[in-house]
Amino acid sequence: MTDFSLAEHGVSVELVLRNPAPSFLYEEAIRREPRAAISDTGALIAYSGEKTGRSPKDKRVVRHPDSENDVWWGPVNDQLPESVFMVNRERATDYLNIQEVLYCIDGYAGWDPAYQLKVRVICSRPYHALFMHNMLIRPTDEQLEAYGDPDCVIFNAGAFPANRYTSGMTSKTTVDLSLERKEMVILGTDYAGEMKKGVFTLMNYLMPKQGILSMHCSATASADDKTSSVLFGLSGTGKTTLSADPKRQLIGDDEHCWSDNGIFNIEGGCYAKAVFLSRETEPQIFDALRFGAVLENVVYDEAHHHVNFGNTSITENTRGSYPIEFIDNAKIPCVGTHPDHVIFLTCDAFGVLPPLSRLTPEQAEYHFISGYTAKVAGTEVGVTEPQATFSPCFGGPFLVWHPGKYAQLLSEKIRKHRAKVWLVNTGWSGGGHGVGARVKLRYTRAMIDSIYSGALENAPTATDPVFGLSVIKECPDVPSEILIPRNTWADKGAYDATAAKLAGLFTENFKKYADGVSEAVRQAGPKA
User: Fold this and answer.
1) Residue ranges of E strands in 197-284
2) Burial class for 181, CB neighbours closer than 10 Å (0-12, 13-18, 19+)
3) Domains of the chain by range and CATH?
4) How many CB atoms lie within 10 A of CB 513?
5) Which residues contact 150 (CB under 8 A, 6 or more apart)?
6) Using N-to-C axis directions, what is the helix angle for 193-209 and 126-135, rounded to 10°?
7) How far, in Å, CA of 54 to CA of 60, rounded?
8) Euclidean distance between CA atoms 219 and 252, whole angstroms
9) d(CA 270, CA 273)
């Protein structure tokens, strides 16, 4: 830790602490953070205040002549004039400049040195500094000495609101990204995840310009490091659970890139959901929440500082941030071979998608762009039947280019490196939610194990008449009767009607992306 000048960024505070040790940030947090505490396992407990999750409707991207033709403008990327960005930037630096002390975290995004981004975070909260210390790749002392100018700067003034009378502001929160300046400004939200996803959004712009696919996915490598796989899936599909595999090495749990060298993790840490966490269900994550980790917005027993992970009175979005090396089977450095397998996970609460299917490259593009899963009835007020959820490329809020750009890159890499693509439904069988039952986790694990082992290489298949998928009919340690979904329904007519309904939802959703893909991809979807 050294005193450091940020004058080149318009920040004049004299006491700037650069890359302080976690132990020092603990001291600072207890001294300066509202309600900060230390859990009985040694993690720092911190609170983000009013905002306990991201604010996607407040994300804005500067419209600039150099990049405006690249950006997928619309609800995901709300345009912002550069002049307004500079107003917000000055508002952020004005706030930072009245602080007694600031924290500067310098680290890297991307484990492959050929594509590494130097990221600088300027913030006023010790909790934010420790969070990004965990989430960025931590430089050695020698690397820090030779760090030089950063490639990207985050001005986190989240405790200070945006001015709602400034042109383009719709609330007191704004998260602004300038692709040309490679700067991010945060006002009006102290939720730490905005910084993490801001870096990912920038990588989602820069990497495809170089022919590299940026991906919202987890990744694992075989024990002998000869093969790797990536797993895509929205919340609740089992991405984290299935990538926490003691038989494999964890490359990363959330953000990766696929380059000509193979795959690499973007991050230096993990940001895991903590709601209902227990050592019995997820021992690796539970044990990682020790000294050096950040526990965000959890409720704890003040007498013993024991965290109650089942208490969601603050938010259901409780989370823990920790360095990836806190996971015993983490692969350091976090890089892998070209994936042998690309796995799309979906939780189909309608109960009509097959538990295990093989996809063609065109189908892979279609389902990648669709990014489908379903909420079950009862999870939200007014939801009485399964609700389809589509998020393009399994990470819609963080895309910059049109989804077709990422899908095309995925297809090219699948073909070039002969990766096999699978759709695994971890949802319902024998009927939709309320009638059937969710596919047992042990069966899903057996399917994933069989994918990795090559046991499905010559497995018999059948073509699904509605979705056109090549359905696996036999899989080791999985009852064959559950693999063809229509056979599991007592009411075949109800299955046919539900399958047609879901096919129609796919078709309707895909209309907004159809202009950005080839005719072969448009024809790869279901036939309603």
Assistant:
1) 213-216, 218-222, 228-232, 248-252, 255-259, 262-265, 269-273
2) middle
3) 2-33+51-212 (3.40.449.10), 341-522 (3.90.228.20)
4) 20
5) 106, 118, 119, 120
6) 40
7) 13
8) 5
9) 10
Q: DSSP code of 517?
A: S
Q: Give the Cα separation of 424 and 439 in Å (integer).
A: 11
Active site residues: 54, 197, 216, 235, 239-240, 254, 319
Q: Is 60 exposed, middle or buried (0-12, 13-18, 19+ CB in 10 A)?
A: buried
| DSSP H or E segment with residue 121 | strand 117-123
Residue closest to 425 by CA, chosen among 521, 494, 352: 352
pLDDT in tens, the chain (528 residues): 556 899 999 999 999 999 999 999 999 999 999 899 999 999 999 999 999 999 999 999 999 999 999 999 999 999 999 999 999 999 999 999 999 999 999 999 999 999 999 999 999 999 999 999 999 999 999 999 999 999 999 999 999 999 999 999 999 999 999 999 999 999 999 999 999 999 999 999 999 999 999 999 999 999 999 999 999 999 889 888 898 888 999 999 999 999 999 999 999 999 999 999 999 988 999 999 999 999 999 999 999 999 999 999 999 999 999 999 999 999 999 999 999 999 999 999 999 999 999 999 999 999 999 999 997 654 444 545 788 999 999 999 999 999 999 999 999 999 999 999 999 999 999 999 889 999 999 999 999 999 999 999 999 999 999 999 999 999 999 999 999 999 999 999 999 999 999 999 999 999 999 888 889 999 999 987
The token duo for 435 is 């009638």
- What is the rounded CA–CA span in Å between residue 58 and residue 173? 6
What does the alpha-carbon distance between residue 178 and residue 92 come to, in Å, rounded to a whole number? 14
* Of 408, 399, 243, 410, nearest in space to 331 by CA: 243
- Helix then strand then coil, in percent of the chain rounded to 5, is 30, 25, 45
Strands (E), 267-346: 269-273, 294-296, 299-301, 306-308, 319-323, 335-336, 341-346
CA distance 346 to 370: 11
Helix axes 193-209, 403-417, angle to 10 degrees: 60
d(CA 388, CA 464): 20
CA angle, 424 as apex, 484 and 474 as ends, to 5°?
Answer: 40
Q: Strand 372-375 to strand 387-390: parallel, antiparallel, or no bridges (unpaired)?
A: antiparallel
Query: Which of 294, 270, 292, 266 has the alpha carbon at shortest distance from 282?
Result: 270
The tokens of 103 are what? 């924290």
